[in-house]
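Step 1: inspect the first sequence and its tokens.
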Amino acid sequence: MKKYLLLAILLVFVSVTNCDKQKDSTMTNKTTASNIAQEKIDSAINELVSKYGEQYRTRIEKGIKQIAGLWRTKPIDATDNSVDGTEDDFVQFCINNFVADSDELLALFNACQTHLEVIIGNFNKISLDLKRPVHLYGYDVTIADEILAGYEPSDNLANDMFANKFAFLVALNFPYFTFEEKEDLGQNWSRQEWAYVRLGDIFTTRIPSALNQQYSQIQSNSSSYITNYNIYVGNLVDDEMNTHFPKDMKLITHWNLRDEIKSQYANGSEGTEPQRMILDVMLRIIKQEIPQEVINSDKYLWNPKTNKLYQDGNEINFTAEPYTRYQHLLNSFLINQQIDQYRPAIGNFINATFDVEYEMPAEKVAKMFEDYLSSPVVGDIAKLIESRLGRKLEPFDIWYDGFKTRSTIDQVALNKRLAAIYPDTDAMQKQLPNILTKLGFSKDKAKYVCDKIEVNASKGAGHAWGADLRGNKAHLRTRLGENGIDYKGYNIAIHEFGHNVEQVMTLYDVDYWMLRGVPNTAFTEAWAFVFQTRDLQLLGINSDNKLNEYYNILDKFWGTMEIMGVSLVDQMVWEWMYKNPNCTKEDLCAATIQIASEVWNKYFAQHFGMQDCPILAVYSHMIVHSLYLSAYPLGHLIEFQIEEYIKDKNLGTEMERMCKQGRLLPDLWMEKAVGNKVSYKPLVDAAVEAHKGLMR
């Protein structure tokens, strides 16, 4: 769960609150005019231009207008009584604190980024440590642990920085550039200029600390809900009271349920009934018809098809989950709706995510996904899968895994082998450098990177948490069974390890701390996918031939298709909530089912032979990591472009080169990395050729 990358302190006061496009003149006035009269703004501008010269006018105007929209001459409401000073104080601050000389400006920048690294990096570590009891095994969780897991020590940081005028100092001297300006000018900026611009991205909006804290608590509550949403599939029964899973098998939703569907393809036709059973479980969860009694409990037997509950051989009454899933989603919407009033130039959380965080407009992303899903090759591949399965496709076949080499591997033997290699976190820690050397990294680089990563046993499916302070470690959280890791856990762990390697390299190897990281979360997902697709190769299971190359392309295409559908549902559900802000959790459940069914009917039903299936709404990200899902398909597209480029090159060397770019705009990063902008067409074209190759 890579949303933790965003929660690492930058989450609220940077990534969530940055301003980007000015939507209309009303919003612009609301954002820039503030309590400062235009004559005072003009006075400050004119005095500084007179003092330093016309060549500084653009930077002076941008900085002064920006802080004019942030300066408070009076409290905003009863909950936040902070005041920055009078209008005259504002003018004097601008005159006294504008830095014109380039050497002095560089010195100021270096001081700012050094202090921010210390502050943000240490807050990140505090947040990480406070969440250990609820995220990791080995703790007896108390009420205090649950409360403090939802506490973000950085929640008042932005307000503190405005109160002591540090935020105004930064915004005045390193003004904010809109997405359009970055696109127009960024190609010609130096590394130092880009670093200045990224510093200018930080202090653009002021959100009351109380709202930040509420946001953090809501996120923590949702995370706890999902982390403890396990289904004991060994207690699932069919109409004859037979089960199809090991008695002690417990799967977290949705991740492990989905992955169990994938693993069942190795069992041929015998895997179909278990897959149908898990599909029924998923549909009950989506519709909130699942018995509350079976969530994270093995006390009862449950037939998900008929939705009947049994105890001691007798059917018993149950209480359906009371729309808890949708209450968590609604809580996320409601807190973001409150935050929206403090980011008027953005519009809402959807814009904050796509325009600011991804720096890829929502309309552009949705159009890319829709064009991909409408590709004729989708139908061609669907027919190929049908012929391989020997039956018509069913909804769960959106997770068809038969193109992968592992689909023919004995899963029991594979799990036994992995448990022997990775019996515990210590064993995995020791293996990390070996994994990197197998991927092409030098021994020295592998040790350099892995010394900065710590492995922990996760209660959830697993996630990666990066450090923001050099000297602190990135964390690889992985789900281990009592007897060691199984393939599902290993596959996720390799994915998360890819995140960790990117996190370390983009923190330590990038020339400016303000440029650390990658353009957006889709890029860190891309690196995680690059690692994940090599999971069997790392075990010495290789299959290098043209047919397998074709199959691998089709596998990537099919997996990307599925997650694009899920992402469209996620985006459309948020659009619906903004259009229906007074909805109830029951309303939201019904709307989500309708939206998921509509997306299914438009892009999937013709290939799967079933109308009105809401399966695309099953992903837990919708509940705990709002609007994060788009990062996955974008990541797949980026990964494919990277893979095509490094096909005849060394992965370790190329990853180092690309990661050193840091956080540029997505298209600019891609052009410098592989020579082309982010696009869905390379994967579609490759899928067409792969299908033709298999049909010859």
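Step 2: inspect the second sequence and its tokens, then contrast the two.
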Amino acid sequence: MTSINANIGGMSCAACAKNIERVLKKQSGVKRGEVNFGTEKLALEFDESIVSFEEIEKAIKRAGFELYINENTTKRKESEIEKLRFTFKWSLIITTPLFVFSMLPMIFYSLDIHVIPHNLDPLNHPGWNGLIQLLLTLPIMWLNRGIFYRGFSKFFTGSANMDSLIAKGTMVAFLFSIYITIENFFLIGTSLAATMEEIIFMDRNQFYFETVAVILTLIVLGRYLEAKTKGGTSEAIRKLIGLSPKTATIIRDGEEVVVPVGDVVVGDIIRVKPGEKLPVDGIIVQGTTNVDESMLTGESMPVNKNEGDMVIGASINKNGSIRYEATQIGKDTVLAQIVKLVEDAQNSKAPIARVADKISGYFAYVVLVIAIVAGVAWFMAGYDFAFIMVVVVSILLIACPCALGIATPTAVMVGTGKGAENGILIKGGESLEIAHKVKTVVLDKTGTITEGKPHVTDIITKGSYSADEILLLAASAEKKSEHPLGEAIAKHGVAKFGKLLETGLFNSITGQGIHAVVDGKDILIGNKKMMDEHFDISTHDADSLANEGKTPMYVAINQKFAAIIAVADIIKPTSVTAIKQLKGMGIEVVMITGDNKRTALAVARQAGIDNILAEVLPQDKAESVKKLQSNGKVAMVGDGINDAPALVQADIGIAIGGGTDIAIESAEIVLMRGDLRDVVLAIYLSKQTMRNIKQNLFWAFSYNAAGIPIAAGLLYLFGGPLLNPIIAALAMAFSSISVLLNVLRIKRLNLRVDEK
């Protein structure tokens, strides 16, 4: 099965997207063909043994659309926006004198002013007046010819869209105005022009050329503003792509060489000076520095990096000169994967969008039926053709479902982009929609609630040595240890003293501890089993430490019991805040862990969690999540390989960014910072985006529900005005722009946790 993401050109509304999907469904071998109108992208899956890509491309072109692969989307968007700007500018330049020419006579007549040249007076020579209006209208129709081509071609192939409605309405008005113009020359009276009495009596001086021109100008204005707005919603992706530097300084044959980033290969040693961006991902082999990763993770504070630490391409080297080995290049870098995640998310549909798509797909035909029924009803009521035409054109124009079509995809696009800017990668519209329904959040303990690495928490002295003396000796003894607890003690000592003491004898005793000689002193560090062979170490301190989820390490110096060093996987400083915020949102928080119940209870107590699932084997985590789903939507947050099945089982899988690739691949949402507060932000962003979508859909539905009856003449029946087609076109354009403006409110959301 082949998967391709492509760009689609030529769409004017959500019905176009639905039509393309309908065409793809008819193609044998196409498993999936999902079009997002907001991003103008196609997610395609097909079996090459049944259908070729060229055949699919031809089918889409026959439907009147263009397919673009590996194109410069930004340049095409800019070209389309410039084309719309040009069309609008010249449409406005020509429409203005046409509108003035057609409206001034009525204004002058009402003021009893007679300054209009006799041959151009619509009451004296309407034929000539109409002919001039026709000549001014033709260039505008030519500038906007794409609307008529797309509209009529789609209508007659059974795939009517917004252009079909506009084309039908304006063409009816245009042809009727031509008929009146010809009638004034040849059909009324016997002279070249009709008499004033005939004209006034037969109401044959009412042209709709200016209506056609104004409608087309308003339509292209709306599309120009829509294109600019939609272009702005992809700003997150453009910013991410723009982060990567264009060149890299690599070490080859002992010399520094500047090469394009595309020429860097895995294994190259790259030199980065202070203030420069890192070209690709890699591991530091020389030097220390602080790296600003805020553009990728949203974390404002620079991160300290030492030899052996991983660095991310496009982050900024702040203050140290470093050399690092390239490990990930091109599409494999973290930045490239983030861009792909965001693009895929913006190309996906939220389930709520399918309702709007289905309505938009059939709306053009429903509206046409309504327009015909209304026209027949007014005809049977005795009204003339001109009146009926106004009603029909107004219905066709005001009922365009553009606002309905853009309500959801643009909100998903902006919402996922906003998340990406803040280090929250939401993989699709469905994930964005489901997140706001979550009732239970399940948190893995190690690496999610806690740091995932042991730290020294307590030093309890039992002899004449001070806590600092104990730490220096113990850290020096453990610096050769490979055990995680010993490494934690050594790391804590280095952080406090910088340089440790030299170690003489060193012996690791499997399952018990170590024996070493440091500064002439005999050092034993190990568990209770090891110490029981030498000393009586009965102490309540060890029991209380264990009850707090800490592991006691016993220290003896020169055959005398000297201290207890407690080591624990400490809770992240932000975890307590995040859990409190989740509870405040009415969400149940559950901790799941393979650790023993005593340790789990201790961590849960510190984190503020009431519900725990302890001693759960990795293969049983998914089953535990499944049981919790009986009470509503469940989000699972984890970072390890053993969390992957549970992440898949949950309604929403949320992976900590510092976790394993498998966990990240299995999740629907990835938190780049590894901060549990971002779980709160992801749910908050989902709630706000869905609220925005529902507002958009409500107003779009309400607009059409109220607009169609008014356009059909409901107010006129009760003594009110008849809706002018120009006002109908203006209302239609305004509805789309109002939806877009509402969507852009998402970009202004405050996603700073500390200000919540």
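Step 3: confirm your contrast with the notes below.
The two ends are 46 Å apart (CA to CA). The first helix runs from residue 14 to 25.
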